[in-house]
UniProtKB/TrEMBL annotation:
Name used for this protein in its record: Uncharacterized protein
Bias (Low complexity) ranges: 9-18
Family label: Belongs to the shikimate kinase family.
Region annotation (Disordered) ranges: 1-31
GO molecular function: shikimate kinase activity
Alphabetical list of PANTHER family matching this protein: INACTIVE SHIKIMATE KINASE LIKE 2, CHLOROPLASTIC-RELATED, SHIKIMATE KINASE
Upper taxonomic lineage: Eukaryota, Viridiplantae, Chlorophyta, core chlorophytes, Chlorodendrophyceae
Gene3D superfamilies listed in its UniProt record: P-loop containing nucleotide triphosphate hydrolases
């Protein structure tokens, strides 16, 4: 397993409603030049999506329940590998508990999003990481099915990725400003996280990309996959061998992800008086306008 953090927090870095739903390029820090992909939403479904926003908000609130408020923080160190942790039957080591506790303090409530081509890995990591942080695990796929009354597979087969991504975009738009959640996004290479324009709703979260690679040299088997350009905006990137079961990936990656989060969140940012968590909270407070990582003055308006 190979884990790394991007230079996002090092080079630049920027509360929100508790639960509602909603919609940057990695590398050096001049203003990001992301490729925006615009969705062609058929008019009838477009109207339906607007009417469903309240249902999305209700779904997130129900999932949150009465969970306590928590602050969060994270670190990077490719250190000790712990055994796989089942969130429903957990015997946590003292080391992992302590590391998760540090991350909780550093995150300050900032939500976390899992992105990448594997639905199973995104979901399993999200469900395992959330209880460690005392966060609420949310799945855009599960909320998708609540909103549409259909499975992702059915909508994909009948209407294609454009319609799937359009619904997931509504979910991410409402979830973007929420705090203390771990959001698992759809994989498959066609969901919202694979589309550059939707990332303005993910910039307010700490994003983790798990990429499966096939060759021994660690070169991605997905060089021809344009969605990787969007995924690469994640602050933490994890490379795992292709074909591993989701449980195996979580067992290897989880401790190192927590360590990477801690390192990332403790770095000083270029913004005076702000660490990465503080900058993300500021980004959300100003309306998730897409101006990441270089947050513009409050009066700034995004171009149409």
């Amino acid at each position: 397993l190979n884990i790394m953090t991007t230079g996002l927090a090092a080079a630049a870095s920027p509360t929100a409603p508790a639960h509602g739903l909603t919609s940057p390029p990695r590398t050096t820090r001049p203003a990001p030049q992301q490729k925006a992909l615009y969705l062609n939403i058929p008019q009838p479904r477009h109207h339906q999506l607007r009417q469903r926003r309240r249902l999305v908000e209700a779904s997130a609130a129900d999932a949150a329940g009465d969970s306590n408020d928590v602050e969060v923080s994270v670190e990077k160190s490719g250190a000790t590998v712990f055994k796989f942790i089942d969130p429903n039957d957990v015997e946590l080591s003292d080391e992992l508990k302590a590391l998760a506790g540090e991350v909780i303090e550093l995150l300050k409530g900032v939500s976390v999003s899992m992105v990448g081509d594997s639905d199973a890995i995104n979901l399993r990591l999200g469900e395992t990481l959330a209880p460690l942080l005392d966060y609420v695990p949310l799945s855009t796929g599960a909320i998708f099915e609540q909103l549409t009354g259909s499975s992702v597979e059915t909508v994909l087969e009948q209407e294609g990725w454009g319609s799937v991504a359009a619904v997931e975009a509504v979910v991410c738009e409402q979830l973007g400003p929420t705090v203390r959640n771990v959001v698992s996004t759809l994989g498959g290479g066609g969901g919202v996280a694979a589309r550059g324009d939707a990332w303005r709703h993910l910039y307010g979260h700490v994003c983790i990309w798990v990429e499966e690679v096939r060759d021994e040299g660690g070169v991605s088997s997905s060089e021809d996959r344009p969605q990787n350009e969007a995924y690469a905006q994640a602050e933490i990137q994890v490379k795992v061998a292709s074909g591993q079961a989701a449980g195996e990936v979580v067992g290897e990656a989880l401790p190192q992800i927590l360590s990477a989060m801690k390192t990332l969140l403790t770095r000083e940012d270029d913004s005076p008086g702000l660490d990465l968590a503080g900058k993300k909270l500021l980004y959300i407070k100003l309306g998730s306008r897409g101006d990441w990582p270089d947050i513009m003055p409050p009066e700034w308006k995004p171009e149409n």
